[in-house]
# Entry
Amino acid sequence: MLRRLNDGFVVWSAPGGACGSLSPQVIELLNGWAQRSCFSNEAGGLILGFIDIDTEGLLAECLTTPGKGDSRSRTGFYRSARHQQEAKIWNRQTAGRGTQIGLWHTHPEADPTPSDVDLVDCSTVLKNGRFDSKGLLYLIVGTRSIGCWYAQQGKSLTHLGHFHP
# Structure
């Protein structure tokens, strides 16, 4: 379930108690990468944030964005190892409190849905990565809306909904 608050935050909750929020700054950054031109290539990166001590909620506050080492095409995006390095730097800058809480990328469709390639990528990240949370937020930015999913190892993605930036 998704809900936008008056202060611009989008909050979400998934069955089983997982929850979190997206800051207005993160939403603005994501929207800026939307593939609205027929010449726009896919973009993507990591979602960085904090884990709330009381609720274990995933609080999205920052993103890594496309750059050197990434491979981008109209319908594909390859995240280079640079994104993990940026996540480590961000962790140090936040005195060890900040961590990777998800993945994001764009699709050239109005209301995006994960492709088979997306499902494999998400599964691989969950299987091979080490995370401070029980699951990850998975966002796909479309031309009209942003789709949100919650991902846990060994389980199907849980669709949380779409929202308009």
